[in-house]
Amino acid sequence: MTQEPMNNLDDNDQSAIDARWVVEAESRLDAYNEGKLQAIPIRKVSAEIDLID
Length: 53
Prior knowledge:
Elements: H1 3-7, H2 11-33, H3 42-52
């Protein structure tokens, strides 16, 4: 059921989504390199995910 909307995307839609993610990722990396964002250790992220489950 959750895959159905994704399967309905045509190549142009997926390309647009991918392009937006590239812009977002580059923006986050720039912010990290400029000291505006801090990295979060994977162990902390994993522990927080475990609390959600």
